[in-house]
Amino acid sequence: AEDRAGTPEHAGDPRRDRLVATGAALAAVAGALGLYLAVGSPGIPDQPFAARLKAWRASDPASLGAPQMAAVLNDLVKERPNDPQLWIFLGRAQAAAGDPLAAARALEQAVRLQPEQSDTWAALGEAFVQLNEGEVGNDARRAFDQALKIDPASPTARYFLGRAEIDAGRRDQGLAMWRALAASLPADDPRRSALKGEIARVEAGPSAAAQAVAEAAPEDQAQMIRGMVEGLAARLQAQPNDPEGWARLIRAYGVLGDADAQAKALAGARKQFADRPAVLAEIEAAARK
What we know:
The protein is an all-alpha fold. The chain has a domain of 82 residues: Alpha Horseshoe (Serine Threonine Protein Phosphatase 5, Tetratricopeptide repeat), CATH 1.25.40. The protein contains 16 helices and no strands. Helix 2 packs parallel to helix 5, helix 4 runs antiparallel to helix 5 and helix 5 packs antiparallel against helix 6. The longest helix is centred in the last third of the chain and has 21 residues. The termini are far apart. The N terminus is likely disordered.
């Protein structure tokens, strides 16, 4: 018989039930799992991968990091390739583990099996954006358009399509899309306040400091940017309860190509917001944009 989600054959599988329960929340907590966690445990370097995989499969999925979760799910989809939910969870875990190419492939399989799910199309579009280093390219746009055809209220699709308009120079159209999205979100939804902050920054245009950098001679620009980033880092040391500031700092070090400083900033954010995983997930998601 075909191996499909929801059949009596799998209805009582506790391992799958635990994965389903954890997978439903994976997107919200993925950033807190760590983007570049090494698969395996440094405490057991000699344990073969197959043995570790077996141990992970027997574990509570909530205790696994994103790469470990991806390894378990990758093993499970080989057993049940017609289960769209497993492909969705696999794609989300791979995206959280910093592998957008694998995430996109998994989510493409999910939409082939279950094409009527708006959230899956939106997740596929987001994987394409991550794969394209923050740009909303044609593949991402098609996925977001499909998400909106199924669910015109899709927050993820509306956000990224609005950002695409702004990035393309159609600022007014993009801001109108973002304002409508912000108005549709509940007042206590953290995405609403974050989006309002982005709207305010776009409305304000480039800051005086950014304008000065743009007008500076090329040889002076790097030094000016470095000074601005160092100023932000110093401010966060004094006033660390600033999620948007941490996201900007992490992103800035990435632009500068300073991997060591970026890793230290990310570690600082994780330490500061260790007890607020939702906030930490937003910081890491914003830092990837």
